[in-house]
Amino acid sequence: MNRSRTAATPAPGSDGAAAFAALMAHQRSSEALGQIAGRLGWDQETVMPRGASEQRSVETAALEEVLHARRSDPRVGEWLARAEAPDAAGAANLREIARQHERAARVPAALASELARVISLAQGKWAAARAAEDTGAFLPVLSEVVALRREEAAAIARGGDLYDTLLQDYEPGTSAAAIETLFAELRPGLRALRDRALGAGKAPPVLKGRFAPEQQRALAQLIAERFGYDMARGRIDIAVHPFSSGSGDDVRITTRVDPQDPFNCIYSTVHEVGHAAYEQNVSPAYALSAIGHGASMGVHESQSRLYENQLARSRPFTAWLHAEMSRRFGDLGMDEAEFYGAVNRLQRGFIRTEADEVQYNLHVMLRFELERSLIDGSLAVGDLEEAWCVRFHEDFGHAVDRPSNGMLQDVHWSVGLFGYFPTYTLGNVYAGCLNAALRRDLPELDTALAQGDPSPATAWLGEKVQRHGALRGPAETIAHATGSAPTAAPLLSYLDDKFSGIYGL
Known about the structure:
CATH architecture of the largest domain: Orthogonal Bundle
Binding site for Zn(2+): 271, 275, 301
Mean pLDDT: 95
Function: Broad specificity carboxypetidase that releases amino acids sequentially from the C-terminus, including neutral, aromatic, polar and basic residues.
Order of helices and strands: HHHHHHHHHEEEHHHHHHHHHHH
CATH topology of the largest domain: Neurolysin, domain 3
Keywords: Carboxypeptidase, Hydrolase, Metal-binding, Metalloprotease, Protease, Zinc
Organism: Profundibacterium mesophilum KAUST100406-0324
CATH class of the largest domain: Mainly Alpha
Cofactor: Zn(2+)
Strand content: under 5%
């Protein structure tokens, strides 16, 4: 049903043109309603009263009923059958609408509504269980979420692989087998680099002190604006788990603040700005259309990881950050070189979002393998915590000490995002490719970064990637920007060079 035509521009008033116009008008309203649903999610994670969870779940389910009815509307199929795309953007819209319609039409409306209701409830139960360090309080609702997502995947797949089906929501065109192959290529090199670095006998210092939360937030906003985040069309709030929400002229992010760890706030903010800048920079011509957002979650993650790591954790940018933090917080107890090491320090921790660049993808691999087993039924929800702890010890060499440092640390499973986790590593691979290309095209970039100015890089990304939205598929988006198909080689080379330098390997 994916009928993305590229025929010549149809004559005004032709059936093909009329069908295309009707379809795009219908899609525009659906996209607008989807943005409202996203705003409800943002509200729930930031300022919603704790006692509103039950009512919000009903509201969310009601809105999902409307959205599902629009996405699966038989008229969409009829319009797709007749529509003629006027240009490449129109063809891409037909491609994406057809993909969405085919998936939605296979899911019963009652299932879509129930899934939305349970996910809304599960999010609150996860937050409460995480705060109480009580895995048992979360497992019953997680079992419901897993069962509903398996039922949804089965309806769409019609005999196909359930996990592969869920992956298409986040990274169209990929498969679990392809991801497994990529991870098998990455894991040995990452483990070896980690072990070499940690065994080198050279540990960068740890930043110590108390850093006032309000000053952290002020600095984070300054950095966000330097990375191109338009505060007139966005805002920064506090949440348990940092995230970005929205598109076009309303793109919001959240961060978190730890008085003892300013890097948490700074780099969580930069990461989410990468997502937000992508959405803000999509061409206005694509607003509220099927291609008016990122090409995939992997491509999305490539922006946030590149902003956070290759740019904001680079030696020249951290030199500027060292001076800025010294001015705001006083003596940091280390020079610029030591500060660069502190920002990029390898350490044995538990939290994915706080992990260093070398070990981050090992966190993702653990989650990919566990959630794949949950969806194929080989792992029961009741056995998930034990499986997590066993796998974590195998990969990281130390034991999980409490649930919030283990399977309760991420919000993703509570909101049904099975298939999302591997896109983080795909994003790192894509970021490695993009970084190599922008460094090739911008030989003077480090001079600007040393002045706290990442704009040459963010402008390059805006032109090469962000403004195009979902005009192209994920791999094609990266290939168009860099001139070659994405591979893991640039990422591995970048990591080896960077951490060999820091640890004297």
